[in-house]
Amino acid sequence: xxxxxxxxxxxxxxxxxxxxxxxxxxxxxxxxxxxxxxxxxxxxxxxxxxxxxxxxxxxxxxxxxxxxxxxxxxxxxxxxxxxxxxxxxxxxxxxxxxxxxxxxxxxxxxxxxxxxxxxxxxxxxxxxxxxxxxxxxxxxxxxxxxxxxxxxxxxxxxxxxxxxxxxxxxxxxxxxxxxxxxxxxxxxxxxxxxxxxxxxxxxxxxxxxxxxxxxxxxxxxxxxxxxxxxxxxxxxxxxxxxxxxxxxxxxxxxxxxxxxxxxxxxxxxxxxxxxxxxxxxxxxxxxxxxxxxxxxxxxxxxxxxxxxxxxxxxxxxxxxxxxxxxxxxxxxxxxxxxxxxxxxxxxxxxxxxxxxxxxxxxxxxxxxxxxxxxxxxxxxxxxxxxxxxxxxxxxxxxxxxxxxxxxxxxxxxxxxx
Length: 417
Fold this sequence. Notes:
- Helix 3 (111-121) packs parallel to helix 5 (155-167).
- It is built from eight helices and 18 strands.
- By secondary structure, it is of the alpha/beta class.
């Protein structure tokens, strides 16, 4: 498969399911049984409605959305289990799909035999299966039950075995539906490590999951489906945040009415009228470079003179992981007087964050924590870098090597974020 060609190409995919309805010529059973010809009302359900996207080789793509939004239908189209009513779905290269717990296993035969059969169905030769057999079993953690019928396996054992076979079949494209929902912490850790290995090898991974932090942290990109349509398609953390905002708004979560984003709580004795992030040149920016200077700024106002006040900022990932929280009290600043309008600036000589989208909170509160004005998720900003980094911290760094360790000339340079 060429690296320039998409691994998955979906164009205007529509999938319509027909409901059962009254038919003039039904089954023999429906004719004989009283009321049997009156099935569920007729009509159809559109599960997907004009979905289009490409997924590149080596890309990790998350699919999110509410129940009934079309996520599993989209995976089934990509897996070739069902065909689109209209449009097209193309997958290039070897495909492995894990869409249901234990799907495809024969319950009456042993795990050993199911590994061999499933491997052949995924396109592996008998020699390849034999070479990978021990690793498949070890990864699944079923050594003590290998020769027992699969019908005696727990749901967790079945999904571990199914995932292990699929993940060790050298797929160019791996489709996964809630695989980490069943299984212990050790299996989840092994699965995430395997995902990382496949991604480094240039394999395309597609996840469907209700585990939003997993999608935000693990995937580079996410698609949000809403009633069969693409509601958002972009960086995973940003798409997850937009989906969460949508869900929160639907549940009546209280929002600000003054043009600033996020939620607001507090007495209003003092308030924040604006929040900005400034780049190295002192200009408002929504995108900043890792390792460059930045400033967090809030315009503040006290409705009456205050002698008890604290100013603070908090940075978090859009999935909710706190990166840093600082305030004037933690810095040892003791309040004396605050009245009228002012401006508070927190200067950062080096923004040592990994590439990603982040959320900013700003607050004014009393020393005992009582809020005057707390703005959660008041704005979001993106951090970019030429050097990739996992997690949230991306400090300036160099590598040193001793002994006979050699690198190609173009990669041997000392690089700085």
